[in-house]
Design goal:
By secondary structure, the chain is mostly helical. It is built from 7 helices and 2 strands; from the N terminus they run αααβαααβα. It has helices at 10-21, 27-49, 55-77, 92-102, 108-131, 137-158, 165-194; strands at residues 85-87, 162-164.
């Protein structure tokens, strides 16, 4: 998912990165997105009314599905096809950033690494909430790897981005951080709040 840009200009690079992350939607893409969203909302509403799941879990699932559609759309399906590109060296972007720091400036790849990590934080944060209970970090680890690998694979296959192992690492790290720092603590608090009071003898 990382976008290779050159130069030391922080603000220009960030602006270019955001534009590439969030390209303009076509009418077809908007119709598909909202059709899926309405369908998922209807299914979850039925489950809540039948008391199969709680509303907190339903909202979390809806947010997770919505966010995943936005991520796949912005990183794969809403991009224009180009040439097939791949970078198979592990941590190449981290090395570039490190050498730039040594030379006294912040390379644009530093902000792209942070964005790639931040991109998956909401996914990790929503995982335990969507499942209804605290989960081990393995869930975020496996989920991050699977989702990011799917995105990178589609980018390579459809020629809509640069395939990188660095992106898989960055995304997975963000997913793990999201679950550990946000998802599990919030889920724990909600479980404590919603737990029935203990009877006193």
């Amino acid at each position: 998912m990382c976008y290779t840009t050159q130069g030391k200009g922080k603000h220009m690079d960030l602006n270019q990165i955001f534009i590439k992350y969030y390209p303009e939607w076509t009418a077809f893409e908007a119709v598909v997105f909202f059709s899926v969203l309405i369908g998922v909302t209807a299914i979850l509403l039925i489950q809540v009314l039948r008391k199969h799941i709680r509303w907190v879990r339903a909202v979390s699932v809806l947010l997770l599905v919505t966010y995943l559609m936005l991520v796949f759309g912005s990183t794969v399906f809403m991009r224009q096809p180009g040439t097939r590109q791949a970078e198979y060296e592990w941590f190449w972007s981290w090395k570039v950033v490190y050498h730039a720091f040594e030379e006294g400036y912040t390379h644009s790849l530093f902000w792209e690494i942070l964005l790639n990590i931040a991109l998956f934080v909401p996914i990790g944060a929503l995982l335990p909430l969507a499942s209804g209970r605290k989960r081990g970090i393995w869930l975020a680890l496996v989920t991050g790897i699977l989702i990011s690998t799917s995105i990178e694979g589609l980018q390579l296959w459809l020629c809509r981005g640069l395939f990188e192992f660095d992106d898989i690492f960055d995304n997975t790290l963000g997913c793990v951080l999201g679950q550990a720092v946000i998802g599990n603590p919030v889920t724990y608090l909600l479980m404590k709040i919603s737990a029935p009071p203990k009877c006193k003898n």
